Amino acid sequence: MNMKQIAFAACVSTSPPTLANCTTGPVTVIGKTAYPPISFTKENKLIGLGYSVIKQIAKSQGLDTKVSTPAPWKRVVHRGRIGEVDIVIGLRAMNLSKDHFVFLPTPIIESAQYIIFLKENELRTKEDLKGLNGGILSGTTFTTEFEKYAKDNLSISQVRTTKQNLLKLNSGRIDYFIAPLLPVIHLIETTGMKIEIKFTPTPLFSVSEYIAISKRSNCISKQEIFENGIKEQIQNGYIDQKFEFFSKNWDVLDYMK
To answer: Quick one: 179 exposed, middle or buried, by C-beta within 10 A (0-12, 13-18, 19+)?
Structure first.
């Protein structure tokens, strides 16, 4: 057997990735590193509303939860695709995502999207955006109403990260961008970025944040349990309570006053 054959044999005989376990536990969860209050990093650990929701549901089924270590987003999504983790927090329900993940029907929260701009400017409504260059994160979904308005009236370019939008804003390459407020402030504060921003007093629109279960995970068989658990947490106020906790924990409320 030559070296090529040996290498090929080694590849095909390598064991497939160990699947996460949603039957006996722990339920393995991972998510975005800078998307508070849903999923963010503190002291090199992932915390946030999404993990609290999953832990509570898993606990009701007698299962432990393991939150994976923070990782680049591409790696996070890849681990979900191959079943190394059960659940991904902060994933958008796009066509490609739906090939590998099941999104529970009930959102854990509605994420308000604001117009964010430099302090010396003044923007308040969507009508103020006409004739300006705007930005958005790839994968952000608009409401039907705003999607039509944007298509007919606005010039908006997509980028992959909030940092890219902030840098483009600071350099004058865009006049505004649309994003959830808390992750933007979090990025400015944690990186020490020298930029002074303002944001509209009310959100432009809201998007739904869903729990994504890997199709390679046996958590698929527990979809109804997770779905009912989310509904119960909404009804009993647990999600609102945790949202407030993680907003305070993140030191953003003072910034917003």
So the answer is: buried
How far, in Å, are 30, 118, 195, 225 from residue 122 at the CA level? 38, 8, 16, 46
Q: How far is CA 149 from the centre of its chain?
A: 25
- How far apart are the C-alpha atoms of 212 and 93, rounded to whole Å? 8
pTM here? 0.80
> Could you tell me the CATH superfamily of domain 16-108+210-256?
Periplasmic binding protein-like II (3.40.190.10)
* Strands lying side by side in the sheet with 39-42: 34-35, 39-42, 45-47
CB 153 within 8 Å of CB 220: no
- Residue at 106: amino acid letter: T
Nearest-10 crossing angle of helices 238-249, 223-235: 80
Per-residue tokens: 83: 């079943």
| CATH fit for domain 111-207, picks 3.40.50.2300, 3.40.190.10, 3.40.605.10, 2.60.40.10 | 3.40.190.10
- From the list 70, 48, 74, 27, the residue with the least C-alpha distance to 226 is 27
Per-residue pLDDT of the chain (257 residues; tens, 9 = 90+): 443 333 333 333 333 344 557 889 999 999 999 888 999 999 999 999 999 999 999 999 999 999 999 999 999 999 999 999 999 999 987 767 889 999 999 999 998 999 999 999 999 999 999 999 999 987 787 888 999 999 999 999 999 889 999 999 999 999 999 999 888 988 898 888 999 999 998 999 998 899 999 999 999 999 999 999 999 999 999 999 999 888 875 555 554 55
